[in-house]
Amino acid sequence: MAYLIKNVSVLGGAARDLLIEDGVIKEPAGENPRNIIDGTGLVALPGLVDLHTHLREPGREDAETVETGSRAAALGGYTAVCAMANTSPVADTAGVVEQVWRLGREAGLVDVQPIGAVTIGLAGERLAELGAMADSAATVRIFSDDGHCVADPRLMRRALEYVKAFDGVIAQHAEEPRLTEGAQMHEGEVATRLGLTGWPAVAEEAIIARDVLLAEHVGSRLHVCHLSTAGSVEVVRQAKARGVRVTAEVTPHHLVLTHDRAESYDPVFKVNPPLRTADDVKALRTALAEGIIDVVATDHAPHAVEDKECEWAYARPGMVGLETALSVVLSTGALTTSDGTIDWDLIAERMSRTPARIAGLAEHGHDPLPGAPATFTLVDPAATRTVDATETASRSTNNPYAGMSLPGRIVATFLRGEPTVLDGKAQK
Ligand SMILES: NC(=O)N[C@@H](CC(=O)O)C(=O)O
Ligand SMILES: [Zn+2]
Ligand SMILES: [Zn+2]
Fold first, then answer.
1. Would the annotation count 105 as a binding residue?
2. Domains, the chain, ranges and CATH?
3. Is 280 a catalytic residue?
4. Which end of the chain is more exposed for a tag (fewer CB within 10 A), N or C?
5. ipTM for the complex?
């Protein structure tokens, strides 16, 4: 079906019309199609790409499935998500990554690109079959033991060496396990006051420092998951200045929430790495604007009610984030031009083009202009909404923004010319 989008601003530019036909964007000419979308006041962005999503299938379909997570992603303006490997069974074989990839195709809401585990069962002892996953139908290029750190430096080195052959990348959950035993939240004054065991910033920074040296030594690609401290920013800054092939992501929640949220003892705020200090938040925003942090990635981590609505110490870490990511980023004002207006080009860079490039997703990250694949999203930047945790396509409601008023609303999302979202509603 063809669509005509009238009067839409592409990346903040002057209003124009776009024809969506045969899976691509065209210059409108001749007879107009019957389906017309009024784009007045809307901004077209390349479909967002998430490098870090937990879809929970196989194994915890009560918390999320590939389909429900894909729907949440489309509603958040995403057209591709990279699915983390910490499922049950773990995505550490060609069979499991192909299963996730196939479920994503069947759901048809976003492209689901599986991430493969680095080590068998995420146990940190033996390398998984990285080559078989790379050669599989899922063509895995990103490998991660996320949820766990590849703590053994020899294994990390081997993994970096191995993926170099096919330009793969190791995405590290940077957490020195000996420094975070029993940790419940960020190590600092709030943890001291609440009497909770702390997760010190240096547990993250020490691993990132080690890994950039390993990546430099091997000449391979390292990606730092959910970077959360000002010190980590400095380690990455120095490594980039030396030419190390390192990229880094920040989550929306680490850009707005701080460790004092734990004072509520509400486990919805329990997450790894933990919410940090206001100074860290400031440093992360600046680093994202500068490009020391390359991308925003959601770390969408849905959890079933019984794993969240319990005592803080027993609750699983993680929070949902796909449906609110763009709004949260807009709310920070971090990606603005010198006159304070939203820098849509920079948003496209951090949330679509760069993640697409890191993941090797050639069909994503293209500006929505004639000639490009019709894989894009339409945002209403003037809209505001109050977040309701239960109004979600996700199976889980562990939403830390509940009750907050956030700017921006996704009006439509298209994947290869097919609408996955129209009028803010999922089409499948
Ligand atoms: N971020 C989290 O707190 N939890 C993630 C794992 C992870 O990203 O480390 C999860 O799988 O629930
Ligand atoms: Zn992690
Ligand atoms: Zn994660």
1. no
2. 3-42+372-426 (2.30.40.10), 46-359 (3.20.20.140)
3. no
4. N
5. 0.99
